[in-house]
Amino acid sequence: MSNGAFEPRLIGFLCNWCSYTGADLAGTARMVYAPSMRIIRVMCSGRVDPQFVLKAFSEGADGVLISGCHPGDCHYQEGNYKALRRHRLLTKMLEQFGIEKERFRLEWVSAAEGVKFQHICNEFTEQIRKLGPLNWNGGKHEQSEA
Amino acid sequence: MSKAKPKVAFYWCSSCGGCEESIVDLAEDILKVVEAVDIVFWPVALDFKKKDVEAMEDGSIAVSFINGAVRLSEQEEMVKMLRKKSGLIVAHGTCSHLGGIPGLGNFWNKETIFNRSYHTTPSTDNPDRTVPLEKVVVEGKELTLPSFYDTVYTLDQVIDVDYYLPGCAPPRDLILNAVQAILEGKLPPKGAVLSPNKSLCDDCDRNESKPEKLVITEIKRPWEVEIDPEKCFLAQGIICMGPATRTGCGERCIEGNMPCRGCFGPTDQVFDQGAKFLSALASILDTNDEKEIEKIVNTIIDPAGTFYRFSLPHSILRRRRMEAIK
User: DSSP of B5-72, one letter per residue?
Assistant: First the structure.
């Protein structure tokens, strides 16, 4: 943000078995993609507690990505289905808080899909750049200084 | 004269009065409390004024029980004063603990709430469009009202709180236990919620009726079905906050054949009750098909208002984004 232009801050929760390995592939293959994604490795997309997503938004994230194995490929059988159900319900709830559904994404990226990960990062970054910063403050600092 | 009795204060902020009622509901036990302590401030029941509290020495009140959320500047001022004058502050009831029902105001702001209250409710007759002003001059004298904040706050977002008495309203035995613990000096570590740290399901009589694998294929609202009074609510497709809610309430709602709505807030292990319940509910929806999932999700009419019915100001996000309110 050195020149004052908005640079999106994205948080990505990537599962250890597929998506993190996919992101690693993008890295080792030296694919170039937007540097806005901060990756957090989790053992499974089903491990992502909705509290993690809310915390990310409340502490400065402009967008949050959860990425897991393709349906049917979950290392733990059905963690990614749990992530899918939570994502749909949480998306609906976030809209009630005024957080647009475009800011919260769920994607399936396999260990072989470095290119897909590259595309997702670029596309998500552009989408958030258009939406603008979230600047979450939760109504703090309204009280008197007394 | 024997040793002076400890001084106790009661105060109310944004609340319905139910917490005051919970003190009166101690019935004859309140006499024991009155015997053991000196009540020095209790606006709802006794005629003390703000200046009486102002005149007290700092720290001279042993404990202040404060109920209600904080949404007005006056409430903020009063609780800050009571903090200075008190050794202990107990957040009494859900509203001061988590924000409570008044906390749902955080889906709106001052402007939209005023507009609704003073202009657009069907029963409003206000042709001059009068709204309360913070300052008005009448016959050369300036009259003032407290400011109304856009956001409702929990008590601990405004002052340091020592203990929390959960519940809407807190049940009598929890209040008595708390008073006794204070009088005997047998208090748990600071910041404790004075109710057992396990979920309501652990104590629920209907837990036995829960199937081995609990799944939901369709969400129903309580009025849409005849509720089986023996069976787990979630197993009947009715949203029950029990899994994400602290126990200690005595299951008053469950016994009345209504599901838990979450007034006791989360256990110590969880910060955000609504998010945790969302997580639990989503994981028991009985389908892996994207379209089916969306269909069930659409039957949950108001997820935020349901999951955060009592805890919106205490949640991670705390309120709806101001820019998103029209």
Answer: PPEEEEEE-BS-SHHHHHHHTTTTHHHHHHHH-EEEE-TTTS---HHHHHTSPTT-EEEEEEESBEEE
pLDDT band at B27 (very low <50, low <70, confident <90, very high): confident
Domain A11-131 has CATH 3.90.1690: no
Nearest residue of B to residue A142, measured between CA atoms: B149
pLDDT in tens, B51-96: 999 999 999 999 999 999 999 999 999 999 999 999 999 999 999 9
**A53 contacts on B by Cβ (under 8 Å):** 275
Task: Name the percent of chain B lying above pLDDT 90.
Answer: 91
Minimum-distance CB partner of A84 among B76, B271, B290:
B290
Q: Within this chain, do residues B72 and B88 fall inside the same structural domain, yes or no? A: yes
Residues B174, B49 within the same domain:
yes
Q: Look at residue B28 and tell me whether its pLDDT is greater than 90.
A: no
B161 & B124 share domain = no
- Angstroms from A74 CA to nearest CA on chain B: 13
What's the domain count of chain B? Answer: 3
pTM for the whole structure: 0.94
Cβ-defined contact of B80 to A58 (cutoff 8 Å): no
**What does the domain layout of chain A look like in residue ranges?**
11-131
In a domain, B316, yes or no: no
Closest Cβ opposite residue B288 in set A50, A78, A138: A78
Confidence tier at B183 by pLDDT (50, 70, 90)? confident
Q: Hey, are the CB atoms on B321 and A85 less than 8 Å from each other?
A: no
Chain A residues close to B271, C-beta within 8 Å: 51
Which chain B residues are closer than 8 Å to A146 by Cβ?
A: 76-77, 80
Determine the structural domain holding residue B254 and report its residue range: 200-307
Mean pLDDT of chain A: 94
Residue A77 has what pLDDT?
94
* B160 in the same domain as B115: no
**In-domain check, residue B193:** no
What average pLDDT does range A121-134 have in this prediction? 97
